[in-house]
């Protein structure tokens, strides 16, 4: 055979050149797929059969697996990577260790073996699933027109959340995006997006409707409000003044009419503060949409022994 002439024909004839490349690749592939190889891949874990009253709160999402087998089989696995299936029907509340031998990877090729290398088990945490109705809190940004205050914000939707007991047992409210009231002077209604506090929580509503009522701003003055000191059992404290002499507050007329001294809390937190003399401001806790304008004294002298 005249190889030189054959080479010239291939070089000058593009179609024959392409055919030769394809033929060579096919020949290599035919030989290659007959051998055994290894293919390592992080594959997704799919959890199933968890009882309805439970929720998965912590788990691995993937597991590192090495497949060993014939070239054809591994080529198919590479083209359509299977998912690891983990059955949770026999798990318990709290932490669980699931041996990798209990994980099923549907591969469909008898000549393929699976090795998890150094992984012997996967750790997951399961909690009890609970459902609660939540109060909706609407944060405010911006300022109403002069001498206008918010009287009330009513959310017209009922919001129910479902999630892990560990997260929800001490949570009683969810928040919306901030409500912009800049330059408003009349009552209005606004749709607001609800903020989901966790990816583990399912919220019944994405959007809620808030009805905002406004009223004329008025001020009221309160005197001799008791001072509450918050301190640890091992702390000894002393202060000469035990009341806030004067407090002026501001809010909507309709809301201020029902405001009582008992609705106001004046406190100073002393827990974890060092021994010695201190001059501290008091925290004034007021009902929603009412704010302090003036207080006297501004600071209290307190001694911690």
List keywords for this structure.
305 residues, RNA Polymerase Alpha Subunit, Chain A, domain 2, 3 domains, 13-stranded mixed β-sheet, alpha+beta, 22 strands, 15% helix, 4-stranded mixed β-sheet, single chain
Short description:
This protein is an alpha+beta fold. 15% of the residues lie in helices and 50% in strands.
Q: Can you lay out the helices and strands and say which pair or pack?
A:
Blueprint lengths: L2 H10 L1 H19 L3 E13 L5 E5 L3 E9 H9 L4 E4 L6 E6 L13 E3 L5 E17 L2 E2 L6 E8 L3 E6 H4 L4 E4 L2 E2 L7 E8 L6 E2 L3 E24 L6 E3 L3 E10 H4 L8 E5 L6 E6 L1 E3 L5 E6 L2 E6 L1
Parallel strand pairs: 1-4, 7-11, 8-12, 15-18
Antiparallel strand pairs: 1-3, 2-7, 3-6, 5-7, 7-10, 9-15, 10-14, 11-13, 13-15, 15-17, 16-22, 17-21, 18-20, 19-22
Overview of the molecule:
This protein is of the alpha+beta class and about 300 residues long. The chain has three domains: about 90 residues, RNA Polymerase Alpha Subunit, Chain A, domain 2 (Beta Complex), CATH 2.170.120; about 90 residues, RNA Polymerase Alpha Subunit, Chain A, domain 2 (Beta Complex); about 90 residues, RNA Polymerase Alpha Subunit, Chain A, domain 2 (Beta Complex). The protein is built from five helices and 22 strands. Strands 2, 5, 7, 9, 10, 11, 13, 14, 15, 17, 18, 20 and 21 form a 13-stranded mixed beta sheet that branches.
């Amino acid at each position: 055979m005249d190889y030189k002439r054959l080479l010239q024909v291939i070089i000058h004839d593009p179609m024959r050149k392409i055919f030769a490349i394809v033929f060579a690749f096919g020949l290599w592939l035919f030989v290659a797929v007959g051998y055994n190889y290894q293919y390592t891949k992080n594959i997704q874990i799919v959890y199933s059969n968890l009882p309805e009253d439970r929720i998965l709160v912590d788990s691995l999402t993937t597991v590192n697996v090495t497949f060993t087998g014939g070239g054809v089989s591994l080529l198919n696995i590479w083209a359509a990577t299977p998912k690891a299936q983990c059955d949770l029907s026999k798990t318990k509340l709290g932490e669980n260790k699931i041996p990798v031998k209990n994980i099923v990877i549907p591969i469909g090729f008898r000549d393929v073996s699976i090795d998890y290398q150094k992984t012997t088990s996967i750790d997951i945490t399961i909690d009890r699933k609970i459902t609660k109705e939540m109060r909706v809190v609407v944060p405010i940004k911006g300022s109403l027109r002069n001498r206008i205050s918010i009287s009330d914000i009513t959310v017209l939707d009922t919001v129910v959340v479902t999630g892990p007991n560990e997260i929800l047992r001490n949570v009683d409210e969810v928040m919306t995006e901030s409500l912009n009231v800049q330059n408003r002077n009349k009552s209005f209604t606004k749709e607001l997006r609800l903020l989901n506090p966790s990816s583990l929580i399912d919220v019944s509503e994405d959007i809620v409707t808030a009805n905002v009522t406004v009223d004329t701003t008025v001020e009221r003055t309160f005197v001799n409000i008791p001072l509450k000191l918050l301190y640890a059992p091992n702390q000894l404290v002393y202060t000469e003044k035990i009341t806030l002499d004067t407090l002026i507050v501001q809010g909507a007329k309709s809301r201020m009419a029902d405001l009582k001294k008992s609705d106001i809390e004046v406190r100073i937190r002393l827990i974890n503060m060092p021994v010695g003399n201190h001059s501290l401001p008091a925290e004034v806790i007021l009902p929603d949409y009412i704010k302090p304008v003036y207080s006297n004294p501004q600071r209290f002298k307190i001694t911690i022994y």
